[in-house]
Amino acid sequence: MRTKWTDQFVNTAKSKGLEVKILNRVRGWIETIEINGKRCYCRSMTYNKNREEYFIGVDPKKLKENGKFVCFCGGSDSTLRDIFLIPWDLFFEAINKGKAINTYKPPKEYWQYKVHLRNRNQKWVLSVQGGSNPKLNVGKWRFDVEKAIRTLN
Question: Rounded distance, CA 71 to CA 73, Å?
């Protein structure tokens, strides 16, 4: 089973005194939280050392929601290492320029935006498959766990 990095982050944030409410889980994974009154869309991601990237799929239905941050929690091995706190509007504006694809084999359907967060020469870039392949510099929103908690406090 993959590591639930978001659960680790939420537990750490609670232990540091932040008020965290889990608003929604999908198949056991945290998907939406409210942290110190800020609504966040959350995803766990595991770092691919060979490709120097994180990868996630985002459901197009999320475009209809609102919040403060997109909170991506990433790690490798047994270590939670990166928290991305990307402003909600900027993230969803970027993925909306991509193209959602069916990630299941027909006749089943499950549409997602394929999103990559890549480390390119120490610059973190978010890109979305399809469409105009938008890129968003996300390095300024990348934090270690302690700094992310201070930022949300």
Answer: 6
Is the dihedral angle over the CA atoms 83, 84, 89, 91 positive or is it negative? Answer: negative
What structural domains and CATH numbers belong to the chain? 5-152 (3.40.1350)
pLDDT along the chain (153 residues), means of 10: 88 96 95 96 95 94 95 94 96 92 90 94 90 81 96 92
Tell me the pairing of strands 20-26 and 101-102.
unpaired
* Pair 117, 84: CB distance under 8 Å: yes
Q: Which residues of 127-145 are buried (b: 16+ CB within 10 A; e: fewer)?
A: bbbeeeeeebebeebbbeb
pLDDT the model gives residue 3:
84
Beta bridge partners of 69: 40, 87
Looking at residue 1, its pLDDT comes to 45
Q: What is the distance between the alpha carbons of residues 77 and 35, in angstroms, rounded to a whole number?
A: 26
Distance CA 33, CA 55 (A): 21
Nearest to 72 by CA among 142, 135, 151: 142
